[in-house]
Specification:
Number of domains: 1
CATH architecture: Beta Barrel
Helix content: under 10%
Distance between the termini: 31 Å
Strand content: over 45%
Largest sheet: 8 strands, antiparallel, barrel
Oligomer: single chain
CATH class: Mainly Beta
Order of helices and strands: HEEEEEEEEEE
Strand order of the largest sheet: 1-3-4-5-6-8-9-10
Shape: elongated
Number of strands: 10
Number of helices: 1
């Protein structure tokens, strides 16, 4: 966990230094803003070797708080803290309903946003996220021991911020790390999270 947090801090510091080349001489001129957001995940799992039994599942909620710092007229650094429910459906038996896998993570993330169009709220972003697993179930049965406690992801996406403070984001979560503890007894040697995330929020 410490390594993941250090990587996030390094990403944020690198983004800060890079943005200074294009923006404010004094970052105190920028406005720190805080907000809340809510969303849902169209979640799935990637298995290696491929396991076609994993299927997309709609997971709710994503709930979090965000902090934005304007580093320049173009670049914006966004920090996030929240809870996200991921997982998938798994078609274990052809004559039965697919099993529902649910994984709940406490997340911290750092995103670098770019506003390339003057006077428009359209932005693109890329970032890193660390997740700590606090909940895991298969059809409401506890399976926390089946999964690793840490997950590390990349986030890329597109957002729009309105002048009144409302914003929306469409992002893709790509898992970097194997989350399964069942390599010895499961068909797949590696399982990673992925999700398409739709989020709505309000900045104060």
């Amino acid at each position: 966990m410490k390594k993941m947090i250090l990587i996030l801090m390094l990403f944020a510091m690198t983004s800060y230094v890079f943005a200074q080349e294009y923006g404010y001489e004094d970052v105190t001129e920028s406005m720190d803003k805080f907000g809340v957001k809510l969303g849902l995940n169209f979640a799935n799992m990637n298995a290696d070797p491929d396991d076609p039994n994993y299927m997309m599942a709609v997971k709710f909620p994503y709930i979090g708080i965000v902090s934005n710092m304007n580093l320049s007229k173009i670049f914006n650094l966004q920090g996030e803290f929240g809870y996200s429910l991921l997982g998938a459906k798994y078609d274990l038996f052809s004559n039965a309903d697919p099993m529902t896998i649910s994984l709940g993570y406490i997340n911290i993330a750092a995103l670098m946003k770019a506003y390339f169009f003057d006077n428009l709220g359209i932005n693109v972003f890329v970032g890193l996220q660390y997740g700590y697993l606090v909940y895991a179930s298969h059809d409401d049965l506890d399976r926390l021991d089946n999964y690793k406690s840490s997950d590390f992801d990349m986030l890329v996406g597109l957002g729009y911020k309105f002048d009144i403070g409302f914003f929306t984001e469409l992002r893709y979560l790509l898992g970097f790390t194997n989350i399964s503890n069942l390599q010895d007894i499961h068909y797949s040697s590696s399982v990673k999270n992925n999700a398409l995330q739709l989020q709505f929020g309000w900045m104060f």
